[in-house]
Design brief:
It contains 20 helices and 14 strands. A hairpin with a 4-residue loop joins β10 and β11. α3 runs antiparallel to α8 and α5 packs across α7. It has 477 residues and is of the alpha/beta class.
């Protein structure tokens, strides 16, 4: 089988996505990452301005040089002792006993444990001054706490070391106003965090996304050749060619009836060039394959559009092309039924072959439409009349194109493929999923018919990945 086995596909998935593809798709989503990061930064900044709490810091200072021996001046012995007890004094500020003394002196509704983290003490190596900082949401409480801790810690050290009174250098008066973080800091953290979160989400989305986007997806995962790609077509005027030459040539044969096909929009120059490439790849590489089925995984992926455009392109090269509408469930090719008959009538034995074969408003293109639906078309498609019809068309026409129902949901396409020389599989850019395509390819290969290649339809140059991988296609004007 052409498709890789399941274990090999799983191993490829475990190896991860190609690094260059991941980079291109990350760059495609970079504006989204920036927007998400800006939103997070702005929201956190608003929280800093509106929702965050304002804190007040009371600062008091204690001079820890004790007066030893009753001298009025500071001696070297005093300074040496101060350097020895500075660290002890800082530790004493946050002592549990000091916490308890402050709470009792100020009659505060707190516990010693709740005061941890709200009281900070520090000193400089070059001074003997201890700075005590008390944090509170109440400005007066912050001042009172700073002064009380200065008094209680000094008393605690005096009693512990039996020192003469320690000097209170400066009491707290007006508290400093601060916030947990400024608005700009919140914005920076929010922006960086939002960008990181967005990138993680984008990478997860990319790794989980199994839609077909490039020819490499089909060639590496399924081993299927890519016949070509069709770009997304803008609305263009429908061709007004009514097949005058075809009708005039068919006048001599009264058995050929006429049907007007509702033609799709004419492709632009780039689309026409790619159609020429697709048809050339089919004819040159598979010159002996004259009966081709065109199918897709799901509906709306462009198989009927490709069938009619291929028929027109091949007919313009001088080939006599017959299009068989093999979708007995839902036809999309003929504008109205009227009193006409089609494939369903022929397979049911209600008409002859010449009665369901129509000339069209496209030169050298003939049509066997499907005008009668069937809830269960499998018995009709598997009958001898369908096989005989395909054999007769192959002998009397240059190319037979059969537009089948989507192969992902029904077995109609696989049944039709048993009577064909090859299958052209249509996938839609950024829509067809690899899991669905895997199931479709497996079902078609069970029919014994060869998949000649794939066509990627509706390619859009909307991403860096598509601009790089389809750069040659983009250069066509």
């Amino acid at each position: 089988m052409r498709i890789r086995n399941r274990d090999e596909a799983v191993r490829q998935d475990e190896q991860g996505i190609e690094l260059s593809v991941l980079l291109y798709r990350l760059l495609d989503k970079f504006p989204l990452v920036i927007v998400f990061a800006l939103v997070c930064g702005i929201l956190l900044s608003l929280y800093a301005v509106i929702g965050s709490r304002t804190y007040y810091v009371g600062v008091s200072e204690v001079y820890v040089v004790p007066n030893i021996g009753g001298f009025e001046t500071v001696t070297s012995q005093n300074i040496q002792l101060a350097n020895m007890i500075k660290g002890d004094f800082v530790a004493a500020v946050t002592n549990r006993q000091v916490h308890q003394n402050v709470i009792e002196s100020l009659a505060l509704p707190y516990t010693p444990e709740s005061m941890e983290g709200r009281i900070l003490a520090s000193y400089s190596e070059n001074t003997s001054i201890i700075e005590i900082r008390a944090v509170s949401t109440n400005p007066q409480e912050a001042v009172s706490l700073a002064n009380a801790y200065a008094d209680e810690s000094a008393k605690f050290m005096e009693e512990l070391l039996n020192l003469t009174p320690v000097t209170r250098w400066e009491y707290a008066t007006t508290p400093e106003v601060t916030r947990s973080m400024s608005g700009s800091t919140y914005f920076r953290y929010g922006f960086l965090g939002g960008a990181a979160a967005a990138m993680v989400l984008v990478i997860l989305w990319i790794l989980m996304d199994d839609r077909v986007r490039t020819p490499e997806d089909l060639e590496s995962y399924f081993g299927l050749p890519v016949l070509g790609a069709l770009t997304q077509q803008r609305d263009r005027p429908v061709s007004r060619n009514d097949g005058a030459n075809a009708r005039q040539a068919d006048k001599a044969n009264s058995m050929i009836r006429y049907a007007r096909i509702v033609q799709p929009n004419a492709p632009d120059s780039r689309g026409q060039e790619m159609l020429n490439t697709i048809c050339a790849n089919l004819m040159f590489a598979h010159w002996d394959k004259r009966v081709l089925a065109v199918t897709s995984c799901g509906s709306g992926e462009g198989k009927s559009y490709l069938t009619m455009q291929m028929a027109r392109t091949l007919a313009e090269s001088g080939n006599r092309v017959v299009v068989v509408d093999g979708n007995l469930r839902q036809s999309e090719m003929l504008s109205q039924r009227g009193n006409n008959v089609g494939l369903g009538d022929f397979l049911s034995g209600k008409c002859k072959l010449e009665e369901c074969l129509y000339g069209t408003n496209m030169d050298n293109v003939y049509l066997i439409p499907c005008l009668t639906g069937a809830d269960n078309p499998i018995p009709l498609l598997g009958a001898y009349r369908f096989s005989a019809l395909i054999d007769w068309l192959a002998d009397n026409c240059d190319v037979v194109l059969i537009d089948t129902p989507q192969a992902g949901y029904t077995v109609d396409a696989a049944t039709i493929a048993q009577h064909c020389d090859g299958i052209v599989l249509v996938t839609e850019y950024a829509r067809t999923k690899k899991a669905d395509l895997e199931e479709t390819v497996s079902r078609l290969e069970l029919s014994g018919c060869r998949i000649l290649g794939c066509v990627i339809n509706q390619v859009r140059f909307d991403s860096l990945l598509s601009l790089v991988r389809y750069r040659l296609l983009r250069k066509i004007r």
